[in-house]
Design brief:
The protein is an alpha/beta fold. The chain folds into three domains: 2-163, Rossmann fold (3-Layer(aba) Sandwich); 168-333, Glycogen Phosphorylase B (Rossmann fold), CATH 3.40.50.2000; 351-506, 3-Layer(aba) Sandwich (Aminopeptidase), CATH 3.40.630. The chain has 19 helices and 20 strands. The protein has a seven-stranded parallel beta sheet with strand order 3-2-1-4-5-6-7, with helices on both faces. Helix 6 crosses helix 11. The longest helix has 17 residues, at 445-461. The mean pLDDT is 92.
Length: 511
């Protein structure tokens, strides 16, 4: 499998686009894929780091220096033509072209469509049209339909931190955290990070504010090309127990040593939340506004837009232990770090049905079920098509989880949660509701989920069981799934309604 990545880095572009592409490329390479990068030779780029990680890089000639994250440095059609020329020179047609750049949209993608098999777009903004087969936006949102009309109808949308692209080190650190727990909260131990480049030099300002407040031992992280490195190093002399890390690959270990976070939004949000590290977030760019506001509204972070308020917010939240008891225990549910495994499965289709299994749902499944419930296709096929708020979901989930007339099971692929099946006992029968994460639809998993669910329900409730389902006629995939699984259609309902009613009697004698 050949996969080409098109992404850039520079002072005003930042390093996040390249870093998350490298994370995905590393995971794909572990599955046998060949991954190639195409990057423009902007000032302060990190192409050398990509090469150091063992990836082949084709450099596009330097254009104008980007002044915003959406700048390509050349006209879009020129960039597309140069990229196309490189791809046409490769030894094989790429299976995937992965695009991660705010300066690229549908017009660019259409020029590349003839020379690649599929296009995968990574975006955060939902502000332009795309011609792609998969779109990934890993940000937390209150607008689950934000890409409707911006991508083709066939496009698979992977939305939310469920699909956060985290390195394997974070998954290992999460497992360590779950085994050992986090050390007692220490307000002195703060992770300070405002992105690799930090063009506004927020890092220096944050350190000055911490000095004014009191005694801290910050762990400070900057990129190797940070233009303000000397100023940051100067500030660090006032923190004898603090440490400065430059272009580090030890971020998971650093996070586990810290009790709270002070910095910008961006992809680090999902890395630190995977490790239960909440904090005070200063919004430093427009692409961070929407998801930071949503996280703040739902009680996961303290978010500010003006760094001059930092001193006030630090004092308020540390003195009340808010960052420890109110936020820190909640945000670890935002992402389990395994989203990248789902993305890799989507791209490689290397899934073995014998590795599928069920387990009972627990309180820790709250957020995953929230993501699955708000998936755009799930809502369209539901009786109530409105999107669900976290507060609404929290109340509903706790009522269902504590009811003896409801059974909820989580579908696992190896160690990855990928779906759910719920049985509600009503009118002497068990009514089914099920869903599969969008990345793994079309893999024939639905029938297996129904089979596993029947076995688990039999084991817990005994037989015979009368199981039913109501499915909208237009939901042809679920209709076919129930028919394949031996569910009978009640003909009289079909004639009078816009949905199919299925029923099946299960006994212990069935295999």
């Amino acid at each position: 499998m050949l996969i080409v990545f098109r992404a850039d880095s520079a002072t005003h572009i930042g390093t996040g686009h390249i870093m998350r592409c490298m994370t995905l490329a590393t995971a794909l390479r572990e599955q046998g894929a060949t991954c190639i990068f195409i990057c423009r030779n902007h000032p302060n780029n990190i192409i050398a780091l990509v090469q150091k990680k063992g990836f082949r890089v084709y450099e596009l000639p330097r254009g104008a220096e980007p002044t915003t994250a959406a700048d390509l440095g050349v006209p879009q059609q020129v960039d597309a033509a140069q990229t196309k020329q490189i791809i046409e020179s490769l030894e094989a047609t790429p299976d995937w072209l992965v695009v991660d750049h705010y300066g690229i949209d549908k017009a660019w993608e259409q020029q590349l469509r003839p020379v690649v098999k599929q296009i995968f777009v990574i975006d955060d903004l939902a502000n332009r049209f795309h011609d792609c087969d998969v779109l990934l936006d890993q940000n937390y949102t209150h607008r689950w339909d934000r890409y409707v009309g911006l991508v083709p109808p066939h496009c698979c949308q992977l939305l939310g931190p469920e699909y956060a692209l985290l390195r394997s080190e974070f998954i290992a650190a999460r497992e360590k955290l779950e085994r050992q727990g986090r050390p007692p909260f220490d307000p002195r131990k703060v992770l300070v990070f405002f992105g690799g480049m930090d063009p506004q030099n927020y890092t220096t300002r944050a350190l000055q504010i911490l000095r004014e407040i009191g005694d801290f031992a910050p762990e400070v992280v900057i990129g190797g090309a940070n233009p303000h490195r000397a100023e940051v190093e100067s500030q660090m002399q006032y923190f004898p127990e603090g440490q400065l890390h430059i272009q580090t690959d030890q971020m998971p270990d650093i996070m586990l040593r810290c009790s709270w976070y002070l910095g910008s939004g961006g992809s680090i949000t999902w890395e630190r939340m995977c490790l239960g590290l909440t904090g005070i977030v200063v919004v430093t760019s427009d692409d961070q506004i929407e998801f930071c506001e949503a996280l703040h509204a739902d009680g996961f972070d303290v978010v500010i837009f003006d760094i001059s308020r930092l001193e006030e917010l630090v004092k308020k939240n540390l003195n009340s232990s808010n960052l420890d008891t109110k936020l820190g225990l909640k945000n670890i549910l935002i992402t389990d770090g395994k989203g990248i495994k789902k993305v890799v499965l989507k791209m490689t289709r290397l899934i073995e049905q014998k590795q599928l299994w069920l387990r009972p749902a627990s309180q820790n499944d709250l957020i995953n079920l929230f993501y699955w419930a708000n998936d755009i296709n799930v809502r369209q096929n539901s009786w109530n098509q409105g999107f669900i708020t976290l507060n609404q979901h929290n109340k509903w989930f706790n009522n269902k989880l504590n009811s003896d007339k409801v059974k909820i099971y989580i579908l696992m692929y190896k160690d990855i949660p990928i779906g759910q099946i719920r049985y509600d006992f009503f009118n002497e029968k068990w009514l089914i509701d099920y869903s599969i994460t969008s990345a793994l639809r079309g893999f024939g998993i639905g029938s297996k989920l129904l089979e596993l669910g029947e076995k688990y329900l039999l084991k817990e409730r005994g037989s015979p069981l009368r199981i039913s389902a109501e499915v909208k006629e237009k939901n042809t995939v679920s209709v076919a799934c129930f028919q394949k699984s031996g569910y009978a259609i009640k003909q009289n309902v079909i004639e009078q309604s816009s949905y199919f009613s299925f029923e099946k009697i299960i006994t212990n004698t069935e295999k």
